């Protein structure tokens, strides 16, 4: 006669094995961004488009987000009807192409409570209006 309520090891739950081939090998920020280097500008300005920004973001929080990179300027457009409110996107200009390239590795990282988009700014868009004075 046995005094335990369970004595059969075959009934013990075992988690299914983990397929380690689908796990990332390094944090996203440590991996090289999946960017076609031909899309990068050949000469300054080295500008990144920042999308899905929190409405309470500041130039300082953008600079802190890109700390360690050579950021030269930040532009955060505001709503024309309400100058207190940001539009939710902006631009960051970098001093060198390597800083821009590293900034692109932060695409989909969290800033505040949002996963922001970091992409190469459309150079054609900057022809008529220079994003930085």
Automatic annotation (TrEMBL):
According to the record, the residues making up region (Disordered) are 16-43
> Which Gene Ontology MF annotations are present?
RNA binding; translation initiation factor activity
Q: Which segments constitute the RRM domain?
A: 46-123
List keywords of the entry alphabetically. Answer: Acetylation, Initiation factor, Isopeptide bond, Phosphoprotein, Protein biosynthesis, RNA-binding, Ubl conjugation
Coiled-coil intervals in this record? none
Name-wise, this protein is Eukaryotic translation initiation factor 4B
Which organism encodes this protein? Thinocorus orbignyianus
Q: Which Pfam families match?
A: RRM_1 (PF00076)
Q: What does this protein do?
A: Required for the binding of mRNA to ribosomes. Functions in close association with EIF4-F and EIF4-A. Binds near the 5'-terminal cap of mRNA in presence of EIF-4F and ATP. Promotes the ATPase activity and the ATP-dependent RNA unwinding activity of both EIF4-A and EIF4-F.
Give start-end positions of Basic and acidic residues composition bias.
Answer: 29-38
Q: Which terms in the GO cellular component ontology are assigned? A: cytosol
* Assembly with partners or alone: Self-associates and interacts with EIF3 p170 subunit.
Highest taxon of source: Eukaryota
């Amino acid at each position: 006669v046995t005094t335990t309520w369970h004595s059969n090891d075959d009934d013990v739950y075992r988690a299914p094995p983990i397929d380690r081939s689908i796990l990332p090998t390094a944090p996203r920020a440590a991996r090289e961004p999946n960017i076609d280097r031909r899309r990068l500008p050949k000469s300054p300005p080295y500008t990144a488009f920042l999308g899905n920004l929190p409405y309470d973001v500041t130039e300082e929080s953008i600079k802190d987000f890109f700390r360690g990179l050579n950021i030269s300027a930040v532009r955060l457009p505001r709503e024309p009807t309400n100058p207190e409110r940001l539009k939710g996107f902006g631009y960051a200009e970098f001093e060198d192409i390597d800083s821009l390239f590293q900034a692109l590795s932060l695409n989909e990282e969290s800033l505040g409570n949002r996963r922001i988009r970091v992409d190469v700014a459309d150079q054609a868009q900057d022809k008529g209006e220079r994003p930085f004075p």
